[in-house]
Specification:
Elements: H1 5-9, H2 24-62, H3 66-75, H4 86-90, H5 109-121, H6 134-142, H7 145-154, E1 156-157, E2 162-163, H8 174-189
Antiparallel strand pairs: 1-2
Helix pairs in contact: 5-8, 7-8
This protein binds heme C (HEC).
The site of heme C has 31 residues, from helix 5, helix 7, strand 2 and helix 8.
């Protein structure tokens, strides 16, 4: 007789593959939670990656080290060079760069005027005689250029207002202020 297992044991239903309480909504919860974990992990990894990139590149592009400077100098070196004789090259002493001391040059009358006088004398601030205004200047010029220069340097309280010494610029030399007065007188006589 053929031994029939099934028959012997009788009907035995297969157990459910998943426990009945393991529902779709739990699946969903599991998925949600792990998505969040994965996203956080990815963000942290990305941040670490950015920091690493920053570390690797930042130094290179902003550093001012001698090697980098030398590399740059080499890259932008002119193609041609002056062909010095070999003797000269052998004995070439270190090149001394001569940077001339800036010479303090006196400003011209016009320059002084534009720097220190124009603010008042172009529009007549506080009664200042406007440059080029013949009526305003005729009487003053009649008093003589020397007096006008002296008043411009020392300061002057006239009938219309107050002219501050050197126009409020003590750093300008007397001669420069006088040159500016000459310029202003010249503007009237034109
Ligand atoms: C803050 C305004 C102001 C500035 C800046 C100024 N002036 Fe005057 N200046 C005056 C006024 C106001 C008078 C008229 C004073 C009066 O006659 O009452 C005057 C008058 C003068 C006069 C006539 C003086 C006289 O004896 O009549 C001369 C010259 C003059 N200024 C030259 C200059 C020069 C040069 C500068 C620049 C270095 C200068 N001023 C800058 C306000 C100014």
């Amino acid at each position: 007789m053929i031994y029939n297992h099934n028959l012997t044991l009788g009907f035995c239903p297969a157990p459910p593959l998943t426990p009945p309480e393991f529902t779709l909504s739990q699946d969903q919860k599991f998925f949600d939670m792990y998505s969040i974990v994965i996203i956080v992990v990815l963000l942290v990894a990305f941040l670490a990656y950015l920091i690493k990139i920053y570390d690797l590149t930042q130094e290179v592009y902003v550093s001012d080290t001698t090697e980098i400077q030398a590399a740059v100098a080499e890259r932008i070196r002119p193609v041609g060079q002056v062909n010095r004789s070999s003797e000269e090259q052998k004995s070439s002493a270190p090149i001394i760069k001569i940077s001339p001391e800036p010479i303090a040059t006196a400003m011209t009358g016009l320059e002084v005027y534009n720097t220190a006088c124009i603010a008042c004398h172009s529009v007549g601030v506080g009664g200042a005689p406007i440059t080029g205004d013949v009526t305003a200047w005729t009487e003053r010029i009649a008093r003589g250029a020397a007096m006008l220069k002296n008043n411009a340097v020392q300061g002057y309280i006239g009938s219309v207002g107050y002219m501050p010494p050197k126009g409020g610029r003590p750093d300008i030399s007397d001669a420069e202020v006088e040159a500016a007065v000459d310029y202003m007188i010249g503007e009237v006589e034109l």
